[in-house]
Model the fold of this input.
Amino acid sequence: MNQQRRTGHDRTDAQALLVDLVSTPSLSGEERACCERLVEFFEARGREAWIDEVGNVRAPADDSVLLTSHVDTVPGDVPVEIRTEDVNETDQDDLPENGEVHGTREVLWGRGSVDATGALAAMAAAAIEEGVSFAGVVREEVDSGGARHLLDTREAPGALVNGEPSGWEGITLGYRGLLAGTYVATSESGHTSRPGNNAIEDAMDWWGRVEAKLEPDEWTPVFERVTTKPVGFAGGSSADGLSVEATMDVQLRVPPAMSVEEVEEIANGALNGGTVHWKDRVEPVMASPRTPVARAFRAAIRRMGGNPRLLRKTGTSDMNVFQAWDCPMVTYGPGDSDLDHAPNERLALVEFDRSLEVLRDAATTLAGR
Done:
């Protein structure tokens, strides 16, 4: 139904916004220029929008549904350009139905095109077309500071759609949680020929114990297991030469079957020297496929000729934070999540267009129109 209302002008506006946002650097903490472009986009179309005290874009309207995605991107210089590319045999479904393009498609290259500026631009356009609420949040890639501020400063919407790449036929229902911290150890210096652990060995031994305690059997799907990953390490003699120091930054992903507290207790129980300072705790989330918002998206995808796929992601997103609202929610957006943060990050514009139509259709349903 929304497909019939759509005009070529609408399509050009949405794609132009996408290209503008991808072309504007928006590293975490440096999102202001992109946020100003979003405010301009809303105001030019008669919608009130502003940037709040932490940098989020707010554009409230019909709160039966809130469309929200993050503005920030990770570092990485991926030159922004639109290329006409051949369509692989497996990508034939990406071709427009009108037959104007045969065997090729336009693809936007650039950092953020997939994660998650494609979803952000599509949601902004859909929010204007359907008259529903929108928020562009900051700092998702570092600490979800924008989402946390949104949670603290407004009421829960009737339903929430979080913007992340799922592919236009995909609906993401679950994410693992995150436990992140830093292990710190210090030991007296001594000759390396002497027995006994130093701080570096204590750090390595602790991490080995953590991995052993949380090691799954080989048949457990990744989404259902705890995965352990060291992400930084520093160690060696102190500046005065009197001690050996070690620090290790670690991340543990937590499946919905466990809580962050349970995983923290296991990691703390493996300590054999040194201490660990936990600094980021995000609970896992798993939404029901039977909520009104999930049903609305399945129906919208089918009306576009797609085959809805229900997804579970092994990472963590703002959806984990928003579950505190206890409202129906899904995550949705164009793009292949395998290209998140990748040097070849790119988004087919026909997929962007189809995701926009799905968003419009689902928003219409959820707004009761």
Summary: The CA atoms of residues 210 and 269 lie 9 Å apart. The longest helix spans residues 113-130.
